[in-house]
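Q: Could you fold this chain for me?
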Amino acid sequence: MSPEARAFLDASGPLPPPPASRAGLQQMREGTLEGFRPAAESVRDQCVDEIRETELGGVRTWQVHPKTRAGREPGFTILYFYGGGFIQGSPFEDLPIIGRIAEETGAIVHAPWYRLSPEHPFPAAHEDALAAYRAICDSADGGPFAVMGESAGGNLALATVLNARASELQLPASMALLSPWSDLTEGPDSIVTNDGHDPTLNASYLRFAADAYRGGRDTSDPLISPVFAECGSDMPPTIITTGTRDLLLSHSICQARALEKAGADVTLRVWDGMWHVFEFYPDLPEAQCSLSEVAAHLLGTATRR
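A: Sure. Below is the predicted structure, expressed as structure tokens.
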């Protein structure tokens, strides 16, 4: 573990309980936004040439253009889904990842502002994601593109590719899932073993977010928890990242096993001592190294398909 990661852990305190009301949820959203603002603005200034406000399939979308295009495969783009437990988050708050993955790949990253729960429970996020995906397919015109997401966005990225596969749409050249929340049940072991050891996520937040998102469905429904969905060997080559302190460590391991069992090409990277979506923190050497590996995976698979 790097000194920077150790310092982050040493400075971390207890996480607050989930909000008790809609007003409390709004306060949490506003507090998270302001807390992430410095890192988002710093990465935007360092890595991003331009952010264009646009739409994909009628869904508001940020089109993030990197300052460098070095190594970019012609026409290669990335469809990115942000995290936040389906109850908060935005492309702006995920700029620490979006901006750096754009810089590392030279690709334009499209990040939809999908609808959040509990105001818009399932299937609202699915509908927005698939609409954006269809628009990416149309604009790609058969060319390679990638799909990526972190945490709840990892769930949405995977679910969207599965929905696209069922609809016989073009599949992405590759996929990257950072600490994917692909199982909303309370079955995975790390929800217990890593609760209190992950400095950025706890089990009570997951329970609150799952209940807000599921829209009355059972959390074991494959539409809610895509780890239980039927995959196939035609799934895109996928890299999954997690850490030994990640509250969603078990989710990542089980998702990798499910893809492997289906015959898909999957790479699981477990980082010693790291926590939930540690790639979000630009000052960590581990974060930069992981994102470089993710970028190499995305570019490598784009050139092979």
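A (continued): Residues 279 and 287 are 4 Å apart (CA to CA).
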